[in-house]
Amino acid sequence: MVKLLPIVSAFQSFYFFGADRYFLNSAIVKFFKIIAPSNL
User: Fold this and answer.
1) Is the pLDDT at 18 greater than 80, yes or no?
2) Domains in the chain: how many in total?
3) pTM (2 decimals)?
């Protein structure tokens, strides 16, 4: 059970970083959808 802890912690950190990256990408997409039409 103790040997699984590093794997679980690595998976959790990967999941949180993936969620942050997804949130950041969606925010950037929304930002460009608002900004791009005004620039065109």
Assistant:
1) no
2) 1
3) 0.39
